[in-house]
Amino acid sequence: MVENAGVFPSPRTTESFPAGLRVLVVDDDLTWLKILEKMLKKCSYEVTTCCLAIDALNLLRERKNRFDIVISDVNMPDMDGFKLLEHVGLEMDLPVIMMSVDGETSRVMKGVQHGACDYLLKPVRMKELRNIWQHVFRKKIHVVKDIENQDLGSNEGAQMMKNGLDEFDDELLLNGSDPNCAKKRKDMGNEEYGDQDFNNPGSVKKARVAWTVDLHQKFVDAVNQIGFDKVGPKKILDLMNVPWLTRENVASHLQKYRLYLSRLQKQGESNSSLCGKQLDLSSKDTPGKFGVQCSTIAQQHNSANSFGYSGNKSFVQDAVPEINEDHLKSMVSFVPVTEAKRTLTCDVPVAQQQQSWNGEVSASGNGELSVMQLMRHPKRDHEHYLPLEEGYPRLPLPTQQHHIQIECVRSPPSANARSYITDRDKTGPSEVKPLCSDYKSNHVRNVSPVACAIDSFSLPLEHDIVKPQGFKQLPIMSAFLSTQHHDLDRNCINSRNCPQNLTLKNSPFGASSSENLRRCSFQGFGCLEDVELNNLAFFDCADSTASVAELQSYLYDELGSSCDYQCESMEYPIIGEGLFIA
Amino acid sequence: MASAEITQLRRQAAYIKKSLFEQGYLDGQFLQLEELQDDTNPNFVEEVVTLFFKDSAKFIANIEAAVEKTPLDFKKLDAYMHKFKGSSSSIGALRVKNECTLFREYCQQGNGEGCLKTFQQIKKEHATLRKKLETYFQLLRQAGPYETATSSH
Predict the structure, then answer these.
(1) Cys-Cys link to A484, which of A256, A346, A381, A513 (CB 3.0-4.6 A)?
(2) What is the interface pTM, i.e. ipTM, of the complex?
């Protein structure tokens, strides 16, 4: 049994299946993480642990086929477990099991709606974990079925699945194990496949498709072309022009997509002050307007493929190039509110390319938020991804496409914001700290151990990165910068010890929001170099002027992180007045 | 160490554990943890318990700070407690977990006094549990691993 956490997928032999099943566990509770890891190892599974949803997503995107199944807690500080569930379902199509100490029917139902294949109640027992392999098997069977039912053609995803399944085929089909045996926990998967005989895949009725990045991109393009309101599976199917895809495949994928989008929309509606379809960069006077260029930019680039699909290296592409410089300039804005225009110049060493970041970080008038959206650029041959073209602050990224998403959310910004200073990273990857002024509920997450020299500024809560593309119908901003309502009391700034720094990530999903926007302001952060933000918790101080700001930028590291994804410790500093003390 | 002493130590430890179960401080989850302990992780249970108390101290401090604010932010308190409850379920801290549930009910009712009272209770149960478990592990450590005990016979 491999002890280390699945860095390299170990070849699984038929004799030992399901041993070696590669499991990713996501839970912000370190105690549980340790216990689950031990339990899964005892089942002879290969375990990787993560205490933040963002990290988990990054890990998953890095190498799409690195994991077989994901187990995640429902309540996590940086991202709602259900949201993670959606992302995983849409992007990677891996089975996801949810966990919680709360077994309320409504919660469980929500899990099902979002696509969980199971919902475990804490305390979780070993025997429940032993059986998780059935979900993996089930998915594989259906993919194979799909392959057999269709004219395969060039569906790589299906091919991979089929190859994967071959390993299990003989063993599983012959040993007559019944994956559907009754279990105490709530097993959602069963309804769908209830009448199937697992010993005979020929009777499988529902075929599953592996939605690869390309495929999903085609899907999104088709949806955009038709117009989201008028969309229907048949129309999409016709436009996509993928011979082996069926209307049913498209329909079910559309359903997932709709769910995701509707959630975004709900957030968009509830943030009245948030940018709607127009992100107006220039409207500096309105509080809460964050000049999100994203939407405008995004709208300009219909063809941008920006889905954070990691498997395929074809990450976000074209969105950026056409953006004109000014636009970009204003976009990038980490700017202190009170200060006038100020140029931020930093040299950020880039792993493979030395680039200096000369950005004009300008304060837009009165401390407007500028949402910076670094759009990715066309991928270069090495992995650097410089999101911005000339005139842009470039973030040297060790990885490909990245977005820095900063979400700004409405509410009257507080007076001062500071700019982040990009740190020079000794090892290469650079860290960028965007400064947001008056970000209401935005986070920029610093993946790297760079601290921000931030004065106080308000930061909105959490936000997810959304890809501009494909959301034409939706207020991109809402996707992008929508206020993430987070009913979080703490937000973690995650700076890991990992060297990967800015990884901009493209994620097609918008932020999930919870009801309250918390406004945080960042205060007095020490020096950049040595502050290690390691899961710092922020307290919500909506009423205090000095509140903790949580910046989160979702970064995606294509290179693969050598960092330790597991959070060492969770600090919950008590912040009296919301001061975040590093 | 003489085997008689070792036996004595173990007996004391066993007594503590038994009383913790009987009084409802611990439940079956704790036994699960013990089952997970093996040669590759001979101190697994103690490590987990230590980790739990480290986190729980923070939870308690956070809640402490939050209950001092007026008016009480029930939503926030509820969220804190939810996390604390999840955490306490990890080692089978039954009494603490039950008090957390009660606290959350008070939160949902907006009953500030109930919350405060329950919180005091939680702190008490938590402190008792911690002390007893500390003693428990200390005794076990003193007694040494089982192999030593048997080899001395």
Answers:
(1) A513
(2) 0.92
